[in-house]
Design goal:
The chain has helices at residues 10-24, 28-45, 58-63, 81-84, 98-130, 191-196, 209-226, 236-245, 250-254, 257-270, 283-287, 297-312, 323-340; strands spanning 3-4, 53-56, 74-79, 136-141, 144-148, 164-170, 178-180, 183-184, 197-198, 201-202, 205-207. By secondary structure, the chain is of the alpha+beta class.
């Protein structure tokens, strides 16, 4: 049986990463981080930590669905709200009143960090010890954990990428629809390395494409309604939407009204926002013919600048479409989604 790659001496890992970089045309530090992402997924989904966890977000679009070629350094995981609140949450995972939603939110704010600290961190730490790996975990925020790993690369061989994998958790949704999907590391496609070493591999439970599409579309809609940038790298949603629309499943995602309604119902309870005028944003209107994906005025300029910063940082692949092209595609998505919406 081949030896574990991550357990190899530093010089062996370094030489292998540089070789893979030449073969694949990808930066060696990105390949190294991808290996640790894969290792983390393997640990999570090969043992008791997997129960109720759904892998979602941009990293799932690149690793599981291979729709985007955008580097994402985080693992976005949804803990099934029904497992987090077994004595409260119904099958739908939705509260029945504002008072119940407030109670659930308070319980999740306590139980999720507790589960992370007392179940997730010890579970992953035990795997590190068992495999003799020098990485360490940091419970950086109530809903975040950082995995700091020792890079095998020299400083001059590394770009902007920090040797850290970020786990981000949420527990306000069921994560459905979802299903198991095999994923592998980028260097697994280099036969000389996959033959020589045991590489991490995993079969995570991955959020369905339709759910990911409507989650991102409604996030973009909120931005267009609020006309302000709440976080850096938010332009990733428009890049991802354009890539998803261009995939073989683009049309079916837009026409999946059951999932569109599911997202509207969920966000109407748990992600309440007001627009620039102070009025409550109506997710039901958004998914039923009033979706807005193309911002105007200063909001458009801010999004453009955010996209350019992502390009400059290398977070988007070489040859990524220009911002104007992405927005043109999103205008088509907006028209298609609104045209496919049921009549009021």
């Amino acid at each position: 049986m081949a030896d574990s790659f991550l357990g190899q001496p530093v010089h062996t890992r370094r030489e292998a990463l540089l070789y893979a970089s030449e073969q694949l045309g990808r930066l060696p530090d990105l390949l190294e981080k991808d290996l640790w992402v894969e290792w983390a997924l393997e640990v999570i989904y090969s043992g008791p930590l997997a129960g109720g966890l759904t892998f979602k977000g941009g990293t799932s679009l690149s690793k599981a669905y291979q729709i985007i070629d955008r580097f994402s350094e985080d693992l976005d995981l949804t803990c099934d709200i029904r497992r987090m609140l077994p004595e409260h949450a119904a099958e739908s995972g939705l509260p029945s009143s504002a008072a119940q939603e407030k109670k659930w939110r308070g319980l999740i704010d306590v139980r999720l960090p507790d589960w992370i600290a007392n179940t997730f961190v010890p579970g992953v730490s035990a795997a590190l010890v068992a495999q003799g790996l020098a990485a360490r975990l940091n419970h950086a925020a109530p809903d975040q954990v950082e995995l700091h790993y020792p890079s095998a690369l020299d400083t001059a061989e590394r770009s902007y990428v920090r040797p850290t994998v970020l786990f981000e958790f949420g527990a306000r949704a069921t994560g459905e629809p979802h299903g198991p999907m095999p994923v592998s590391s980028d260097i697994a496609s280099v036969s000389a390395l996959s033959d020589a070493f045991e590489l991490p591999h995993a079969t995570p439970v991955v959020m369905g494409l339709s759910r990911t599409f409507w989650e991102k579309a409604t996030a973009a809609h909120v931005y267009c309604m609020q006309q302000r940038l709440r976080a850096e790298r938010f332009a990733r949603h428009w890049y991802d939407l354009a890539a998803m629309f261009g995939s073989v499943n683009g049309t079916s995602m837009i026409r999946d009204r059951n999932v569109a309604d599911m997202v509207a119902a969920h966000k109407s309870w748990f992600f309440k926002h007001n627009d620039a005028g102070g009025n409550r944003i109506d997710y039901w209107q958004a998914v039923r013919g009033a979706l807005v994906l193309v911002p105007q005025g200063a909001a458009l300029g801010a999004l453009h600048d955010d996209y350019l910063r992502m390009l400059d940082a290398g977070l988007l692949p070489e040859g990524a479409p220009a911002f104007d092209q992405v927005l043109s595609t999103c205008a088509l998505i907006e028209a298609a989604a609104n045209g496919a919406a049921p009549s009021p």
